[in-house]
Amino acid sequence: MLLRNLALLLLLGLMPVAAQTGLAQPKDIILTVSGKIGDRDRQEGKSYNLAGLTEIGTAIITTSSPWISGRARFKGVLLRDLLTRLDASGHSKVIATAIDGYSTEIPAEDIANYDVLLAFEMNGVPLTPRDKGPLWIVYPLDDHPELSSVEVNYRWIWQLKSLEIR
């Protein structure tokens, strides 16, 4: 009994240390990236919690969407910046997969030519699974009329959980 209580006390004492070191706890992981990424991450892929994504840098896009009324202000990480951080040069497309298994292809040209955003906030409110979060791929439709197509609409994947770089 004494040994069990000591083990529990030790475990509880170490929990704040793990939190302070910035280690992503499994429940905190909101995005995994695999495929054609830099050598150091190629084997296992890379996992991100929200803090890890925001360290890359954030951007804001104000646009309308087929899934919302009017315009909204989205905050998130540019997909282009994430791929640069991962040394994912030479890719031809990104396969984005949602929590429910839905997947879509995002062409490299979209990433290079448009500010494709991995949004985690809409109008200053964090996105949750109930409202298309924790991550939602957002295109700047209002700035680029050529993006107003059904094909591009299918790329607005919400409840994003993983990206595979090809």
Automatic annotation (TrEMBL):
Residue ranges annotated for the Oxidoreductase molybdopterin-binding domain, each copy included: 63-140
Pfam families, per the entry: Oxidored_molyb
Record's signal peptide: 1-19
Swiss-Prot/TrEMBL keywords: Signal
The protein's name in its UniProt record: Oxidoreductase molybdopterin-binding domain-containing protein
Source species of the chain: Aestuariispira insulae
